[in-house]
Amino acid sequence: MDEKRLEQNQREKPVSVFNKALFTGFVGGVLWSTFGAVAYYFNFTEVSAASFLFRSFWQTEWTSSLLGEVLAIFGVGIISIGVALLYFSLFKKMNGLMPAVLFGVVLWGLVFYLLNPIFPAVPFLTDLSSDTIVTTICLFVLYGAFVGYSISYEYHDFNQTETDVSTAK
Question: pTM (2 decimals)?
Answer without folding.
Answer: 0.85
